[in-house]
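Hey, can you fold this?
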Amino acid sequence: MHQRQLVIKAPRQGLFEITHQIAEVVQQSQLARGMCHIFVQHTSASLLIQENADPSARADLEAFFERLATSQAHLFTHTDEGPDDMPSHIKSALTQCSLTIPVVDEQLALGTWQGIYLFEHRLQTPPRRLFVSVFG
């Protein structure tokens, strides 16, 4: 097993591709076959595998989630950290805090148009801690 903690700060709220950072950890593991597990240690950010070829797919997903869980404080009672506090938790609840991806020939076995994304739900983007574990 090979494990590494990554600290990633998204430049803004929304989807931020981290495929290359995860692939680097997989290559460092030198494990030819196995599984890569990624876990984000936060309740206001999540992980997704999504299309990484057309930027409009990312923009549409971000817009959909913003409509679904808008940052209008009057709609929620949990607003301790601002108007985006509860919407961030809702977005996290509807997505994932971890992903597992097969490793084949020391590479992530992602599909042709798939990329790994950190989905930052907060307006102020704090550094996010991710654990990447590669088992083989």
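Oh, and this one too while you're at it.
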Amino acid sequence: MWEKINKFVYSHVILSVLLLGILFMLAILAVGILIMLDMQPTIGLTLFTTWQIVLTCIVVFLMWKLQVFNIGDFKFKNMGKGFLLGWLFIVLSVILFLLNLMQLPEDSIIKPNPLYLLIVILHPFIGTGLFEEVLVRGLLLKLLLKKMGHTKR
């Protein structure tokens, strides 16, 4: 079965990339809408992040089955500057968020929930960032590079 799928994907790479991208984005959109409509924000965002992690695992499995998986892509070699810049922005975001939160008046209508605030701060980094990087750079870009080659032409 995977031989037929591999044959189709590599003979129609651009169509496959578009279909996979649309499929995964629709899965995120559908679950996000369903969860956010009728759940408490804390539970909804937690489930949404969990769904993104599950989809990330599915993308890694597809990368393995479509033979574009490279264990070197998941090593931390030569990523120091990226992590340094990324963590700098994470720390700055958290500091600014907490400073704004501390400026709320005591009699404010807004009552912060620490668990929800933690989930809101971590969600973009754990769920969205990981899913987007693995899907786009890990699977879709590698399929295109395998078809078109690594030259600038």
